[in-house]
């Protein structure tokens, strides 16, 4: 093994170790006003489902979000933010109707998905960011 190959191998091992430390949850994480910024910066691609307990369409969308979190584990992290309990985030991002999903890439808001849209539509909307 020459020196270049040795360096390449060592760098690959370092990269794999660093990625192992970053666990991608297989189910949505619960987010709050206090931890939203930290959470969206921790992972490369985060989708925040803004919902409320009284919202029928939000409850219809919930199992879809759960499925996507499992299917896209390692690529996308899904979070749930109750807008009734976390009003600062709703105001900050101009959430006026729910369900609404905020798409963050590398900690920056890059897109929104408004309404109870089908699973396939969510997948299509996320594809350019993966």
TrEMBL record:
<dbReference type="Pfam" id="PF00085">
    <property type="entry name" value="Thioredoxin"/>
</dbReference>
<dbReference type="InterPro" id="IPR005746">
    <property type="entry name" value="Thioredoxin"/>
</dbReference>
<dbReference type="InterPro" id="IPR036249">
    <property type="entry name" value="Thioredoxin-like_sf"/>
</dbReference>
<keyword id="KW-1015">Disulfide bond</keyword>
<keyword id="KW-0249">Electron transport</keyword>
<keyword id="KW-0676">Redox-active center</keyword>
<keyword id="KW-0813">Transport</keyword>
<feature type="domain" description="Thioredoxin">
    <location>
        <begin position="18"/>
        <end position="130"/>
    </location>
</feature>
<dbReference type="GO" id="GO:0005737">
    <property type="term" value="C:cytoplasm"/>
</dbReference>
<dbReference type="GO" id="GO:0015035">
    <property type="term" value="F:protein-disulfide reductase activity"/>
</dbReference>
<dbReference type="InterPro" id="IPR013766">
    <property type="entry name" value="Thioredoxin_domain"/>
</dbReference>
<protein>
    <submittedName>
        <fullName>Thioredoxin</fullName>
    </submittedName>
</protein>
<dbReference type="InterPro" id="IPR017937">
    <property type="entry name" value="Thioredoxin_CS"/>
</dbReference>
């Amino acid at each position: 093994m020459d020196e270049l190959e040795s360096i390449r191998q060592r760098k690959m091992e370092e990269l794999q170790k660093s990625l192992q430390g970053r666990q991608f949850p297989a189910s949505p994480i619960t987010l709050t006003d206090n931890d939203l910024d930290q959470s969206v910066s921790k992972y490369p691609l985060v989708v925040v489902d803004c919902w409320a307990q009284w919202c029928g369409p939000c409850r219809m969308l919930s199992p879809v979000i759960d499925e996507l979190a499992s299917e896209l584990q390692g690529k996308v992290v899904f979070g749930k933010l109750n807008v009734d309990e976390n009003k600062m985030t709703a105001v900050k991002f101009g959430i006026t109707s729910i369900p609404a999903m905020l798409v963050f890439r590398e900690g920056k808001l890059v897109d929104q998905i408004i309404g109870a849209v089908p699973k396939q539509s969510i997948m299509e909307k996320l594809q350019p960011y993966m």
